[in-house]
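Retro notes (design track)

What went well: tokenization of the new backbones is finally stable.
What didn't: we kept losing track of which sequence belonged to which structure.
Fix going forward: every design gets posted as structure first, then sequence, in one message. First example under the new rule, 323 residues:
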């Protein structure tokens, strides 16, 4: 490997810049030429590619978003689109690619690798923590901390007015943001895609609390919860428990932005460094992850396909602590 390119793609996440900085500087350290591709696969297609030096990534470790920008690119789903995009790498003799993104971005990278043989390394850049083969994804910790801060504030007003708040956090297929932020804010219950939502149980538990005059409650719902998100849950609760003053709050995109936490900067730096080491060691088609504080390299296909199992223990703990 002599010349590598890097891109950020799909949903942005805080810490992508820190990862980018690590990849660029480690690449340069090992004598590689490093190219930045703007707007993910769109920029690869449109030849929006530029050579990077150490200064191009100065003063970005603390910034959310991504200086390379991100995009969703329809054309890349087709073989012709990918051929057109690859031609722009080929003409610069780029012979390695680092993709920071989520499962969609990894699927695109895998196809590029299969069709043109270019080695690709994936870095898990997603707030959802929905990739298999790593204990952390870049941006998850920041998103959870943002959610915790917001839910703490909601609790103040819930407490002042004796309200039941149903707070929806991000997570279409993975409930980790809901699980972690819910536990950390003392939620009454947490509804996530990985566990079936039994509204009868939720109602029973709230009725019991109502009898004890415990009217201040927070329910944290992942947007991809099987029941259909916070608004659907609220509908049922309002109907069946009219005594509760029930409000919905959907946190939305604030969870994507902001300065990355120390933890996200650390894992981004570490993963970025190891992305280059992996390329130099001849690895390809793998996602760099961290498991039990050791680096791990999971085939992209498995990182996308396999699912973590959420420990039932956590849900039990939620129940016991919320009594
Ligand atoms: P994320 O990486 O966050 O999951 P997306 O699913 O939007 O985000 O994927 C980002 C981009 O990756 C897409 O816009 C597309 O260009 C590319 N991509 C996603 N899935 C595929 C696929 N099946 N084949 C080829 N390219 C894909």
């Amino acid at each position: 490997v002599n010349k590598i390119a890097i891109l950020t793609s799909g949903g942005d996440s805080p810490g992508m810049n820190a990862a980018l900085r690590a990849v660029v500087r480690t690449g340069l350290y090992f004598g590689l030429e490093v190219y930045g591709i703007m707007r993910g696969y769109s920029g690869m297609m449109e030849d929006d590619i530029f050579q990077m030096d150490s200064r191009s990534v100065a003063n970005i470790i603390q910034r959310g978003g991504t200086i390379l920008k991100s995009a969703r690119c329809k054309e890349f789903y087709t073989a012709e689109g990918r051929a057109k995009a690859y031609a722009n790498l080929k003409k610069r003799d780029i012979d390695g690619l680092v993709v920071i993104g989520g499962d969609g971005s990894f699927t695109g990278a895998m196809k590029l690798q299969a069709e043109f043989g270019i080695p690709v390394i994936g870095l898990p850049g997603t707030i959802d923590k929905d990739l298999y083969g790593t204990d952390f994804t870049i941006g998850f910790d920041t998103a959870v901390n943002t959610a915790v801060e917001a839910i703490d504030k909601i609790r103040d007003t819930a407490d002042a007015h004796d309200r039941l708040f149903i707070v929806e956090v991000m997570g279409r297929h993975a409930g980790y943001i809901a699980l972690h932020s819910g536990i950390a804010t003392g939620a009454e219950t947490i509804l996530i895609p990985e566990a079936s939502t039994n509204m009868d149980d939720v109602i029973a538990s709230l009725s019991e609390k109502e009898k004890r005059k415990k009217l201040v409650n927070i329910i944290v719902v992942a947007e991809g919860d099987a029941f259909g998100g916070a608004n659907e849950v609220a509908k049922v609760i309002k109907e069946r428990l009219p005594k509760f003053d029930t409000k919905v709050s959907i946190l939305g995109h604030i969870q994507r932005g902001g300065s990355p936490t120390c933890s996200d900067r650390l894992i981004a730096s570490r993963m970025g460094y190891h992305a280059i080491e992996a390329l130099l060691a001849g690895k390809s088609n793998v996602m760099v992850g961290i498991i039990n504080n050791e680096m791990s390299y999971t085939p992209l296909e498995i990182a996308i396909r396999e699912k973590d199992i959420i420990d039932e223990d956590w849900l039990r703990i939620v129940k016991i602590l919320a009594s």
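Added context from the reviewer: The pocket of adenosine-5'-diphosphate is lined by residues 9-11, 41, 72-73, 76-77, 101-105, 107-108, 111, 126 (CB under 6 Å).
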